[in-house]
Amino acid sequence: LAHLAGLADLLFAGPEEAGLLLGQGSGTTGASTFDEGEVLARKLGRLARGAVVLKLGALGALALSGDRVE
């Protein structure tokens, strides 16, 4: 899966999918704060060649493009 993520121009994931992509298993990578979500998005950003959108449930979502987080 990580190889396919590396080919994506835009990667959408929630914490569980991020855990699978990062080799941490399903459900082990929950992001309970926006700051934790940013750390997780940056880890995903190392895999993807494009932008990352991390879905954070009730917290909303964040987008990472290069070093810029929104």
Structure description:
- The chain is an alpha+beta fold and 70 residues long.
- The protein has helices at 2-7, 15-21, 34-45, and strands at residues 10-13, 51-55, 61-65, 68-69.
- The chain has a four-stranded mixed sheet with strand order 1-2-3-4.
- The chain is globular and about 30 Å long.
Short account of what is shown:
The N and C termini lie far apart (25 Å).
Give keywords:
alpha+beta; 3 helices; 70 residues
Question: How are the secondary structure elements laid out?
Answer:
Blueprint (H helix, E strand, L loop, with lengths): L1 H6 L2 E4 L1 H7 L12 H12 L5 E5 L5 E5 L2 E2 L1
Cα-atom radius of gyration: 11 Å
**What order do the SSEs take from the amino end to the carboxyl end, as H and E?**
HEHHEEE
Structural class category: alpha+beta
Count of runs of 4 or more consecutive helical residues: 3
* Beginning-to-end CA distance, first to last residue: 25 Å
**Helix percentage range:** 25-40%
SS elements, strand count: 4
Q: Outline, from the CA principal axes?
A: globular
Q: Estimate the strand proportion.
A: 15-25%
Strand order of the largest sheet: 1-2-3-4
Oligomer: single chain
Largest sheet: 4 strands, mixed
Nearest-integer average pLDDT: 87
Poorly predicted runs: none
